[in-house]
Every structure is written in C-alpha cells, then in structure tokens.
Amino acid sequence: MKKYKTQRSPARMLAAVVAPLLIVAGLVLIGYSFMMGDPFATSALFGAEAPSNSTMKLTVPDMKRVKEVPVYDGAATDEAALHDGTLHVRGTGFPWQQGSNVYIAGHRMGFPGTKSYLVFWDLNVLENGDEVILTDANGTTYTYEVFKKTVVAPTDYHVTQPVAGRSVVTLQTCTLPDYSDRLIVRAELTSVT
Question: 98 and 32 in one domain?
C-alpha cells in the first residue's frame, strides 16, 4: 500500500499557530483584569452580581450626618466628588469583591448646604462593633463591623491596600485640630442582603 504525503494549506498552518496565541492572550487579559481590581471581572470570579454602575450610598448609624450619603467613584484628588458627598478612591475595591478594601474618604468640615457638610465630623466616635453600611446601585446592602481605628500620615498609602483574609471598608478623614494627619476607621464585612 502506498502512502501519500499531503501538504497543509498555508491557512491551516496559520490557524494552528494563531489559535494558541489568541488563547494565551485572552488568559493574560483576564488575569490582568483581576490583578488590577476590575470590579466586574472580580465579581464574575466570585459569583457576586456586580451592579450596572459603581454608585453607592453610605450609612453609619452611630454618626449623626451619615445616612444614605452618596459615595462617588473618583481619583484620590477628586474635589468635585468630595464636594457633594464622599469619595470611593478609584483603584480600591468594591463591596461585591471578595477580599476587597473599599476605601472611602470624606471631609470633616465639608461645604455647607451639601452632603459633604460635616459628613465625617464625628468619625472619631466610632468604636469596635459599630456598623458601617454600604448599598450598591442594585440595592444590595453590605454591612460591616468596625474593628480598628488609627491615625496615619497623608503619605501612608498602605491603608488603601487589601487586608489579608478580610473584606473591609476603610473610612478616612482629616485629624483635628490642624487637619495634618488622617483618621482611619476600618470595618469588616459581616453580612450581605
């Protein structure tokens, strides 16, 4: 019996090379999305339903002025977001992400007539066990329990990083009387409803 050699067409040879490259590129892109903290990629991994946008509301029952305060997403220097409420620092986690640090900054004084006015004036009164509640655009409520209060310098960016083994929210405002340092209050996720 005679065997015949067949040549592969150039298109088939190209497909044999390109297909694995596309698969590898796709996996790299997905991995990069998770590494960079993309809220929608991470929610897909953990099975949580990410809302259609990143809008949130903040309620802290033990603080006088923090009831359904808007939380706007923006850069750490976004004064417009801080003017109208509180600021979720872009690049930090979201509550629907497992193991995230949802970093929210707010003014001590703020601007009269806006939601920022004295919003975090009494942040220092929070104690271990107090609740911090975030509500996302879908109406899902994330309840956290305060476990740590500390003061850091404005250059201490480590407080924006995730906390190993925990899903947390970090609230930040300036210290009194000279606003030179940052008061940090951390709370750990206890329930999602």
Answer: no
Task: Mark whether 25 and 101 lie in a shared domain.
Answer: no
Backbone φ and ψ for 16, nearest 5 degrees, come out as: -65, -25
Measuring CA to CA, which residue among 193, 192, 144 is closest to residue 170? 144
- What is the pTM assigned to this prediction? 0.74
pLDDT tens-digit map of 101-149: 999 999 998 889 888 899 999 999 999 999 999 999 999 999 999 999 9
Beta strand ranges found along 98-140 (DSSP E) = 101-105, 131-136
Same domain (yes/no): 32, 116: no
The domain in which residue 103 lies consists of 53-192
Q: Among candidates 86, 68, 73, 192, which has minimal Cα distance to 140?
A: 192
